[in-house]
Every structure is written in C-alpha cells, then in structure tokens.
Automatic annotation (TrEMBL):
Highest rank taxon of the organism: Bacteria
Species of the source: Paraburkholderia fungorum
Keywords: Nucleotidyltransferase, Transferase
Designated name of the protein: Malonate decarboxylase holo-[acyl-carrier-protein] synthase
Recorded name of the encoding gene: mdcG
Stretches assigned to the Phosphoribosyl-dephospho-CoA transferase MdcG N-terminal domain: 22-92
Domain Phosphoribosyl-dephospho-CoA transferase MdcG C-terminal: 108-225
Length: 233
C-alpha cells in the first residue's frame, strides 16, 4: 500500500484477524469510512466500484484491514472497515470460474487465466491438485465487472497450500505457469498461501534456505512455512 489510514482503534487492540475474511478476498462494501489523510481518488474509486481487498494486517475485534485500488497502478490505499460495512465477500478461487466481460477474454491476462483453468480441469495437470484463483486486476475485474485489466496487466494467482509443498512439485507448478505465461505473452505471478503467510512460488521452487512469508504480523524470513509453529499461529 502506498499510503495507509491511521487505525480507528487503539493499536494495542490490533491483536487478530477475523477468519471469515482472508487476504485477497474481495469485499463489497455499503459504506467506507472517511479518514483525514485519504487521497481524493479513494472516494472516486469507491463510487465507481464499492469493493476493497482484504490485506494482511492485524485489527481490533469488529474491524477488517482492507486496501483500496484506483485506476492508476500507483493508487493504493490501506484503510479499515467495520464488519457492519461489509455486504458480501468473494474469494479468489470463486473468481476462477467467472467469465470476463464480453469482448475482453482476448486480453492476455484473461487468456492466461483461461489456459490455467483448462489445465486445472485436465487429469494430471499441474494445477488440478490445488485450490487457486486470480487476484490483482484480473480478480478485481471479475468481481466488479468494471474494466480494470489492460494489455500489459500481469496475471496474479493465489494458490492455497495448507499442506507442505515439496520443492519438486513447486518446480513443476512453476514451469507449468511459465509455459502459460509464455503462451499468453505476459507474466504470471503466483503466491502460495501457507500457514506462515503468503510465499512467492518462485522463491519456494528455487530451494532457498529461507523464504519471505507475508503475514498479518509483518513479513518474516522462514525456513519452513509449514512448520508446526506457523500452523498453530
């Protein structure tokens, strides 16, 4: 997030995340509280599409940390909503089965997503064993039905990985996504959702001694994102 609102609660009370809403879920809101340092584009964005993405941050009971996105890549704003402000929520995996707006399925990001869906449905396909879905601009457009994806947009994917993923499987998965990216002519970036937080598939597949895990408590370098200490957290 390029900027962030001050929390509407005492920082000492930010102790947890409501399990009903997970990072990258898209929330439809019926109200967005206004904050003093709020950029002008935030209101415009909310009026155009009353949606926000759940971000990785601890919150007090009754609140959810969210991110707003504008039309420009640089327009990102972290803020907070009360649970009463939320109408509905949609997960990335639910968006994987939605169709883009008429005439937009030829855009590279949507073409890449279609290839990924075909692979998921193919017996033995690298993606067939996982629960996953689009995030970023692709997920946002599928949720809101408002044109957001451009010709140069990457395809961002979230892959649920509650159980330990071997490096060999990670390499196979990465190679499969790289083939899709090459075919579509764009980047395909995948993040593994592990007990320790979000981990880049490229890092885990590379066999690094430690990988960066993005968690609500902050990013941390970990040896094993599936270690018991993370599972219990």
């Amino acid at each position: 997030m390029q900027a962030c609102a001050a929390p509407p609660f005492a920082v000492a009370h930010a102790l947890s995340c409501d399990a009903r809403w997970r990072p990258h879920d898209l929330l439809r809101l019926h109200r967005l509280p206004r904050f003093d340092n709020e950029p002008a584009w935030v209101r415009e964005s909310f009026e155009r599409a009353p949606y926000a993405v759940v971000r990785r941050a601890l919150a007090a009971d009754g609140f959810v940390a969210i991110g707003m996105r504008g039309m420009e890549r640089s327009q990102r704003y972290g803020t907070w909503v009360h649970l009463d402000d939320i109408e509905t929520a949609v997960s990335p995996e639910a968006l994987a089965v939605r169709n883009p707006l008429a005439g937009r399925n030829a855009l590279p990001a949507f073409a890449a997503l279609a290839l990924a869906v075909v692979q998921r449905e193919a017996a033995g396909g690298a993606l067939s064993e996982f629960v996953w879905g689009p995030t970023g601009s692709t997920g946002f457009e599928l949720a809101t039905q408002i044109p957001t994806v451009t010709l140069s947009s990457d395809l961002d994917l979230l892959i649920r990985a509650p159980e330990k993923l071997s490096h060999d499987i990670a390499i196979q998965l990465l190679r499969s996504l790289q083939a899709i990216a090459q075919c579509a002519g764009i980047r395909v970036d995948a993040q593994l959702e592990t007990p320790a937080g979000g981990v880049a598939l490229t890092e885990w597949a590379a066999g690094k001694a430690r990988v960066m895990a993005r968690h609500a408590r902050g990013p941390q370098l970990v040896r094993d994102p599936w270690a018991p200490a993370h599972v219990a957290a």
